[in-house]
Amino acid sequence: MTILIKERDQQARGSIWEKVFLALLHKTVNTHPWKLSTFERSLTFTTEMEKPCCSHKRHDSGAAQSPVLMDHSTITNLAESAFPEPLYGNVTWQTLLSRPDTLTDSMCAGLATCPPEGFLSLHQHTQAEIYYILSGTGSVEIDGKRHAVSGGSILWIPGDAVHGVFCGPGETLHWLYVFPEARFEDIVYRFQEPIKSKL
Fold this sequence. Notes:
Jelly Rolls, 10-stranded antiparallel sheet, two-stranded antiparallel ribbon, globular, disordered N terminus, RmlC-like_jellyroll, lyase
């Protein structure tokens, strides 16, 4: 059992753990030149079992975060979205994780598809993004450089990097995208002048 030092925790002051720790501290001070005096009086203690676990807390309300599981049939039945303006591209996507539809915080994710001779116009957003290519072939342009991608490729796209997706004839690209935001609607796409696939 680990004894941790906490300041200004009146609840633990005078507990058996404080007495044990101070006894050990006094025993050790004979061989270590530590200064105790006022420092000793400011210590209070808690055990590891008493320490709250932060890894399961939600950032918004403090309530315990629950895992989210979505099976294949649920994903298959999710509605597809598309850009209202064709100049932005003819990519379609399904939002998998995004508040308030899913009780997830800190990340959102979805599946995107680029059809043959299709494109997602060059754009940027403040948040970094991850692409994991599920299947197909195509290219992803990032800050003026084109990268050929295929199933199994992964890309990390820095925040504010100008990027887009392009497929040539006979190519279709499917990928998973992930953002470090709880809500997909908080991702603000800033589009450049649209260009189509050069492949």
